[in-house]
Structures are given as C-alpha cells and as structure tokens.
Design a protein that fits this description.
- The structure is a single chain.
- The protein has five helices and no strands.
- By secondary structure, the protein is mainly α.
C-alpha cells in the first residue's frame, strides 16, 4: 500500500511539473504574441499609415494635373467633361482630408520641414484647380489659364518632389519598423522553440525517471512474486507427496477392509452353518424328549399292567 501511494505521489508530482512548464510556455507565447501584435500596431500607426497617406496625396496631385490638362483640350464631350470634373472634385477632397492626417504622423524635424513645403504648395495649387471646376462653360479657357500661370508647373513639381521625399522618409521608417518587428518575432520564435525543447526534454527525462522507478518497483515485485511462486511450488510438491502417501495408505486400508470384509463373510457363513446345526440339534433334542415322554408313558402303562398281572396272580 505504501509503495502504491509513493508511486502515485511521484506520478502526480511529475504531471504537476510538466503542467507548470507548459503553463509557463503558454504564458510566454501569449506575452510574445502580444508584444509582436503591439509592434505591428505601432508599425501601422507610425509607418504604414503615414506612408499610405503620402502615397495617396502624391497620386491625387498627379490626377489633378492630368485632369486639368484634359479640361484644357478642345475635343472633350460634355459627358467626358462631367467625369473629368468628378475626378478633380474627388482628388481635391481626398487631399484636404489626407494632409492633416499626414501632419499628425510626422516623426522628426526633417519630415516636418518637407511637409511644410507640401502644405505651402497645396495652398497655391488648390485655388487654381478649384477655379477650373467653377468655370462652367468656360472650363477649357480656365484650364488653359491655370496651365499657363507663372509658377504652376514649378509649384506642382515642388509639391510632387516634397511629397515624394516625405514618402521616402516614411518608407525608410516603415522598413526599419518592419525589420525591428521581424527581429523581435524571430527572437520570440527562437526563445519559444528553445523553451519548448527544454520543456519537452525535461518532460522526457522526468518520464524516464518515473518509468525507471516504476520498472524497478515492478522488478522487485516480480522477484518477490517469483520467490513466493517457488515457495508455493515446494509446498505443492510436499502436498503432492503427502497426497501420494495418503493414497497409498488408503489403498492399504482398502485392501485390509476387503480382507476383513471377506473374513466377516466367512465368519457369517460359519455362524449361519452353526445356527443351522444348533437348530438341527434342538429339533433332535425335541424329538428325543418326545420319544422319552412316550417311553415313560409306555413304562407307566407297562408298570400298571404288571401290577394288574401281579394282583391277578396273587388272587389265583
């Protein structure tokens, strides 16, 4: 019973150790995953989102320049001009929304100075592009006037270059952030693998130790059982020998019983024969007694006859 309880305690202790190890590994994995998630969120906020906004602003600037040139063309249908106006309106609205958002995601003075150039260029270009939309039937002439305005081409190029520089700066920040996040993820993955291997190795070692202990106990029990089996075999052999001796004695007793039975039968036959002789003697004795009684009677009768004869002879 004590050995069984000790073995149960060892197994429960081993299970508890493995469970705690896997729990620690799980907590570490959750922590590492949370850290990577936070890094990715930070990466999106600090790098990806500003990069996206800068790319959208640069694309919208190019759209405004292209559709302004289309508005200046002479062979534009009313339907095409209407679609052109929609493109210019959307591009202006997108830039008005994206510029403040991009300004909130700047990281250093260099980006702020470059962004200030973009804002200044936008303050110059936005009214020109708006005037093309408001020209109505005179849109072609208004577009020609915008394109011919002194400083339009240079200001547009300045805005494009400045927003391109902001885009490059944000791309560099994004690349650095991606590399940092990847390095952290790689480190976390490496640590997780090492910890997992340590836990597995520890679990295997613990399982081997417990298995070895159990094997030793089982071997000890097997040895004890073998000894008990040998003892039982000796007792069985002794009992078998005693049983054989008892069987032989029983056979002798059975033979003696048979001899006694035969003697009893002989005595019984002799007794029966003696009984028959006694009965015959008794019968003969009865017969002799009867004959003797008759002889007495005859003697009595003879005596009486002699007496009578004697009396008669006296009388004569």
């Amino acid at each position: 019973m004590l050995t069984s309880m000790t073995l149960k305690k060892q197994l429960l202790s081993a299970f508890a150790v493995v469970l705690v190890a896997f729990g620690a590994l799980t907590v570490f994995q959750i922590s590492a995953t949370s850290s990577v998630t936070q890094n990715m969120e930070s990466l999106y906020t600090d790098a990806y989102d500003p990069t996206r906004l800068a790319g959208e602003i640069r694309s919208d600037l190019a759209r405004l320049n292209i559709f302004t040139r289309r508005a200046a063309e002479t062979d534009v249908t009313a339907e095409a001009r209407q679609a052109n106006d929609a493109e210019i309106t959307d591009a202006i609205g997108d830039i008005d929304v994206a510029l403040p958002e991009l300004g909130e995601g700047l990281h250093d003075a260099e980006e702020e100075a470059t962004f200030a150039t973009v804002e200044e260029s936008w303050r110059y270009l936005s009214p020109l592009w708006t005037s093309v939309l408001e020209a109505g039937d005179e849109q072609q002439a208004a577009a020609d006037g915008v394109l011919a305005t002194d400083g339009y081409a240079a200001t547009y190029q300045t805005a494009d270059d400045a927003i391109g520089e902001v885009l490059d700066l944000q791309a560099a920040i994004a690349t650095e952030s991606f590399e940092t996040a990847d390095a952290q993820a790689t480190r976390s993955r490496t640590i997780s693998i090492v910890v997992a291997l340590v836990v597995v190795a520890g679990g295997l070692a613990l399982a081997w130790s417990v298995a070895r202990t159990v094997t030793r106990k089982v071997q000890g029990s097997a040895t004890g059982v073998s000894t008990n089996v040998d003892s039982l075999a000796a007792v069985s052999a002794q009992l078998s020998s005693s049983a054989e001796e008892t069987s032989a004695q029983a056979n002798v007793a059975a033979a003696a019983a048979e001899q006694v039975s035969a003697s009893v039968q002989t005595v019984s036959a002799a007794v029966e024969e003696m009984g028959a002789s006694v009965r015959e003697i008794a019968q003969n004795t009865t017969t002799a007694s009867t004959v003797a009684s008759r002889a007495v009677d005859v003697a009595d009768q003879t005596s009486a006859t002699v007496a009578k004869l004697s009396a008669s002879s006296v009388e004569i």
